[in-house]
Amino acid sequence: MKLVLAATGASGAIYLQRLLDRLDTREHEVHLVFSTYAKQVVHEELGQLVVPEGVRQHGDKTMNVPFVSGSARFDAMVIVPCSMGTLGRIAAGTSDSTILRAADVFLKERRKLLLVPREMPWNLIHARNVVTLMEAGAIVLPASPSFYGGAETLTQIADTVVDRILDQLDLPSPGMFRWKEPTD
What we know:
Elements: E1 2-7, H1 13-22, E2 29-34, H2 36-46, E3 56-58, E4 76-79, H3 84-92, H4 98-108, E5 112-115, H5 124-136, E6 139-140, H6 154-168
Parallel strand pairs: 1-2, 1-4, 2-3, 4-5, 5-6
Helix pairs in contact: 1-6, 3-5
């Protein structure tokens, strides 16, 4: 699978780190783009992001990357965390950065685009932008962790969101808690 991961300036760097930790870069081609403020948030929340070997990193001010063109074949893009500002700019169709142009390309080419906002509460503008993007084909997966699977650590709680991201990408998430029918 060819993936683009992007991080914006919203809180929630742990979700990006856990996703990177769980993607096999020997099996998947992974590209990573940070917005200007994403690097600051990562530093404040994690100190440093551990980027696995094989992940290709790109700046947010270049159009000289393959995934900003519809002619390049990529399978999915995940923006995690996705600020409401980025979400709104994607909904408005602006394409003045690598992240925004890539999101626009994934929408126009009908490729999988996952947006993982962590911000709350939402105002009416946020909600309308989310609806606009869902109508355009994006999957909006708010970073709302679940607690019914017995998670005991912050990492395990964050993984409940990452498991859902992996599910949307049709990638394995072997430790995920899944409901099943009770047995007699």
